[in-house]
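Fig. S4 source data, part A: sequence.
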Amino acid sequence: FAGLKSLFNERKSAKLLEDDEIVTLQVGKTVWDQAPRQMRVELWMSSLQRRGVGVAAAAKYEDMLLTPVGDEAVNDIEKDVARTFPGTRRFAAAEGQEALRRVLHAYAAYDPEVGYCQGMNFVAGLLLMYLPERHAFGGLVVLMQDRGLRRYYSADMSLLQTHLWQLGRLIPPQLNTHLERQGVLPLLYGASWLMTCFNADFPASFSARVMDVILHGWLMDQALLKAAVAVLVRCEARLLQLHDMEDCLTLLKAEAPSWDNTVLHDVLTEAFTKPWTAKQLLLLSSVEGAESVAEALHRVQQTNSAGAAVTPSADCAPPGAAMNISKLAYRVSDSSSITSVTAAASSCSGSRRVTRGDDGMRAVSSPACIHASLSSGALPGGGGS
């Protein structure tokens, strides 16, 4: 069992993005089903020029390449470059890998506070599939600085935790309750969806259309949460029939991304045309009562343990409840899955030291109370601490 490392596992699309001369393009709320590939290039380039941030950043590209970055960033980038879109000709080749390496180095130099974090490689890789290298760097700066993706990579990852909490409450309550009973928390599938703009899990044609919307001017969190909710709602009927954590995650992490391209684009069309309900807008406007990842894990474990202890006929003890508690505990306690999110969320006192495992994932050496109770990953995977 791969644990949370599966969130960023290498995947191969049935058809390489380079082969698609005709794409499904979204401009605002208008969808073009048979658009020439060049239209996306022009849309993204115009988005960089319209706000000025991307153009200004692109002008600094060569300077950023000459600016040294820390050894940790260099090593992390090197590990991730070979794992980014390995099924494409562009990134299987040394030239494409070198371009990605340069763009990631340039951003780490441009934004030393954040530096490089895993997940950025997939976003930069998608940009490089459509944009010249310096403009791909400009696009990454726009996404991180202007559209707000950078806030997912802050030290406490507070925005990511908030959005994971909101994601569980933006879907139908019945579905959220069912998933929690199986131990399927948003962190187990949603972290990689949000942090990579769906690039790590879904086909590039899907994530490129999400990128259309974000670059064109949508708020980053609105676009990503709408797409995530739409996928979950499309899976709702199947999920409600499943009573095993692994089966639920397989549907969300493997089956849904492999849906036919037409189905995936229908999901996005529904996501970007259907307005939020009044209840959803209220939830998005306030974070009152929001849980950290650590608090959500603790609550679900406690609730499910209590439910499993009552008679099998009780509503709160669904089939396989005890097994799902064990699986959730395994994911929480597995040292290979420890990452910075729950450690940052924990209220335990003491210092934290961020380290990285051999696989390049962020890990946290944290106080014993974190390891004993709530060490887990909201980010994909993690090396041992």
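Fig. S4 source data, part B ends here. Residues 113 and 154 are 9 Å apart (CA to CA).
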